[in-house]
Amino acid sequence: MPPIDLRSDTVTHPTPAMRRAMAEAEVGDDVFGDDPTVNALEARAAEITGMEAGVFVASGTMGNLVSLIAHVPRGGEIIAEAESHTIIDEQAGHAVIVGASARGIPARPDGTIDPALVAAAFRDPLDLHEPRTSLVVLENTHAHSMGQPLRPAYTAEIAAIAHGRGVPLHVDGARLFNAAVALGVSAAELLEHADSATFCLSKGLACPVGSVVVGSAGFVARARRARKLVGGGMRQVGVLAAAGLVALSDGPDGMIERLAEDHVNARRLAEGLASMPGIVGLDPTRATTNFVIFGIAATDPGGEAARLSRWELRERFLEELRAEGVLMVSYAHDTVRAVTHYGVDIEDVDRVVQACRRALAACGAAPAPATPVN
Q: How many helices, marked H, and strands, marked E, lie in the chain?
């Protein structure tokens, strides 16, 4: 039986409809603007997000990077959540390539950053000692808070602070459509007050490759130029863009509405895990999108497992889980992350719950599960 892979929603495989569309895609040289399938994807991405234009890029990291290049002058500063993907998971591209500093603000439990702290983080543009604040970045959904979606009203509040100081707002919307589905709003509503955004096709939307950057026509022109700078100019890439068109379609092959299934499965997984001895820090009501994040702790203070660090115990748990045919991943602050996605159904989730129970016992974090009596 193949493993149940919950390491990320990036492990998804394209749907049959995507594979057909990719095989039949009309293509051209995208650097010259000649790929009709890419052009159609960019137009659809702009339409569905309420923006003027879009540009297809290879990844979410590239999408954020070209957005920063388009917005931020060398020596500028970015305000973002302290543990956001832009700051800690993109190899410091903001510093290495953009030439910008970053000012991190800790997240609150709901994934937001305090608007008062955002306002206070702006630099004094008249002080020669300080960099100029040039961009504010939000992450929606917010990964480290267990995939919490940021509401339109909150984004509007942060945008008002930024715009009041003449600074744009960028949304790292890697899982933007998860947020939209969880909140029951459109992607356009989520981005109504943002100046730009990037969203991934290759996560919950199940495409094999790619993200799209959206914003005003002028911003996208700068982002497209930045894409070329970082080696992201692609040629007959309509074979990949075709999958994105399927994912963003309104018909039965579209992948946006089905994200609700992933959210249901994540809640089911969280509820199954939360009451287990050895699982800590998991409130299942916080499983609102497709992330489940939890810690491992020994239940017997006198046992061998209690003498291990949380890191060591977590790694033993993951090893035992792999032996059970279930893949999860180490995550921040000695936690474990599981991500539900296309290709994982309710039966898989129930198998995972039972596998976790056995893995907890095998690594010494919890007592062995009772043997059923016939």
A: 14, 13
pLDDT of residue 374: 54
CB atoms near residue 118 (< 10 Å):
22
Q: What is the token pair recorded at 239?
A: 């074979």
Cβ atoms within 10 Å, residue 262: 24
CB 142 within 8 A of CB 148: yes
pLDDT of residue 370: 66
* pLDDT in the model for residue 307: 86
Following DSSP, what letter does each residue of 197-229 receive, concatenated? EEEESSSTT--SS-EEEEE-HHHHHHHHHHHHH
Strand order in the sheet with 76-81: 53-57, 211-215, 196-200, 169-173, 132-139, 76-81, 101-105
Q: What is the dihedral of CA 65, 230, 30, 222, to 10 degrees?
A: 50
pTM of the model: 0.95
Extract the tokens encoding 247. 């994912």
In angstroms, the CA 194 to CA 165 distance is 14
* Spacing of C-alpha 90 from chain mean position: 13
Instruction: Give the model's pLDDT for residue 338.
Output: 98
10-residue mean pLDDT series, the chain (374 residues): 95 98 97 97 98 98 98 98 96 97 97 98 96 98 97 98 98 98 98 98 97 98 97 96 98 96 98 95 97 94 85 94 97 96 97 96 84 54
Query: What per-residue confidence (pLDDT) applies to 301?
Result: 85
> In the chain, what is the straight-line distance between the N-terminal and C-terminal CA atoms, in Å?
26
**Closest residue by Cα to residue 25 from 245, 250, 201:** 245
What span, in angstroms and rounded, lies between the C-alpha atoms of 72 and 45?
A: 23
Specify the DSSP class assigned to residue 235.
S
Please, what are the domains in the chain?
A: 14-247 (3.40.640.10), 258-362 (3.90.1150.10)
